[in-house]
Design brief:
Blueprint (H helix, E strand, L loop, with lengths): L1 H13 L1 H41 L2 E5 H5 L13 H8 L5 E14 L2 E10 L14 E4 L8 E5 H7 L6 E7 L5 E12 L4 H6 E5 H7 L8 E5 L6 H12 L5 E5 H4 L1 H39 L1 H9 L4 H36 L2 E2 L1 H4 L11 E2 L5 H17 L2 H8 L3 H5 L3
Parallel strand pairs: 3-8, 5-7
Antiparallel strand pairs: 1-9, 1-10, 2-3, 2-6, 2-9, 4-7, 5-8, 6-7, 11-12
Length: 410
């Protein structure tokens, strides 16, 4: 075995340029795979945080009827006694805040836009959401305000600035038309594009009076630490809420199905990248090994004539290919780790390229990578194994020739 490995190493050394070119092609494929996988992993994890911190919390409690008609945000299906729900949730270790969500048409000047309007409690909302940290102009909402906080993209589309007046037209809980004349107190630029492009925030007390809610709210948003098992926590909450008819709880995953579909597509995309690396390995290594075999047909015939078994000759080429794969995989993984480290620590600012484009991920501005050890180790192992597998066909073809034909081969 040691002799075969030594022979394979000498053969690799004789054709250094060809060996490096083939190993380099494999390395480039692995670098690209590690880079893309880390980027997509980072976008997925950042999206999950931004959904929880800015969009849905860890979970939401609503009525069953409201959930069934969630897209139209019907006020008539609100939670009539949120205090009773909060009482039931005591002792579960979750933090909650009240919100009323409804659709409204926002007017400014001669234009108008439809948007989601969220009435929040400024005193408790900050215990769950991080909206106050993203205010770039003006200030965050305060109890008793007669104002509105707008997402940055929505404010730009409306052409409105802090201190100017807007009008929100909507319907009350009982279907009557209602208009709210409000002053823009602040503009926020959230890492979550869903918040930026079509969301306005007003104080809960203002909505309660204007929309005839009489203390009712459309949802209670819940938060619990990320390290707690979400499924177990949701089951505990569901058991508690079973005592209140018509009430249900949904985790952030249930409320963000569009994002989860993107994440699943990402997994498929990573598989496609791996297939591309596989093709690079197949073409490059097959070509290299084919050239190596046909350049040494007479040498193969001589080794066979001297009594060397076909299995030993095939193993020599297998070790050669494995050496190419090991070299290419080592270089590819090494460079891939460096590139991924830069992505994790510095990221890539995509604002100039993407602008206000929404690609499904809940990320804007700087995209950061994430460490995915399974992909790095898997890419390394795959590179070595793929190289060895694609050496079998060329070597087997040469070994099918008669010894005399090999010795006469030119």
């Amino acid at each position: 075995m040691r002799f075969l490995i030594s022979l394979a190493w000498k053969n690799l050394s004789r054709y250094r340029r060809r060996t490096m070119i083939t190993a380099g092609a494999l390395a480039v494929g692995l670098v690209f795979f590690i880079f893309m996988d880390g980027w997509l992993q980072g976008a997925e994890r950042e999206s999950e945080r931004n959904i929880i911190w800015y969009e849905s919390g860890s979970a939401k409690v609503t009525t069953v009827e409201y959930l069934e008609d969630l897209k139209s945000m019907p006020l008539k299906h609100a939670i009539d006694d949120p205090a009773a729900v909060e009482g039931v949730l005591e002792g579960t270790g979750v933090t909650s805040t009240r919100r009323t969500v409804f659709a409204g048409e926002i007017f400014h000047g001669e234009g108008s836009l439809y948007a989601k309007v969220i009435a929040l409690d400024p005193g408790t909302d900050e215990n769950i959401y991080k909206l106050s940290e993203t205010v770039t102009q003006g200030r965050y909402l305060q109890p008793g305000d007669q104002g509105v906080l707008l997402g940055d993209w929505l404010a730009q589309d409306l052409g409105v600035e802090v201190g100017e007046e807007i009008i929100i037209r909507t319907r009350t809980r009982f279907g009557a038309f209602q208009t709210l004349d409000l002053i823009v107190t602040g503009v926020l630029n959230s890492p979550n594009p869903v918040i930026n492009k079509g969301t306005a925030f007003i104080p809960l007390s203002l909505a309660d009076e204007a929309l005839e809610m009489d203390g009712a709210v459309t949802e209670l948003t819940l938060y619990f630490p990320e390290w707690q098992n979400p499924e177990d926590k949701i089951r505990i909450i569901e058991d508690r809420l079973s005592s209140i008819p018509g009430i249900t709880v949904q985790s952030w995953k249930d409320l963000a199905q569009d994002f989860l579909m993107i994440a699943q597509a990402k997994s498929a995309g990573s598989s496609i990248l791996l297939v591309l690396v596989f093709i690079i390995a197949a073409v490059g290594i097959s070509n290299t090994m084919l050239m190596a075999v046909y350049e040494r047909v007479r040498e193969i015939g001589m080794m066979r004539a001297m009594g060397m078994k076909d299995g030993a000759i095939r193993a020599t080429f297998l070790f050669e290919a494995g050496g190419i794969g090991l070299l290419g995989a080592a270089i590819g993984v090494g460079l891939g780790v460096i590139v991924n480290w830069l992505m994790v620590t510095r990221g890539i600012n995509m604002m100039a390229l993407m602008g206000r484009m929404d690609i499904g991920y809940r990320v804007t501005g700087i995209f950061y990578g994430a460490w995915h050890p399974q992909a790095i180790v898997g890419g390394f192992v795959f590179g070595v194994i793929a190289a060895m597998l694609f050496s079998i066909i060329p070597s087997s073809r040469a070994l099918k020739m008669e010894i005399t034909d090999c010795l006469r081969y030119e």
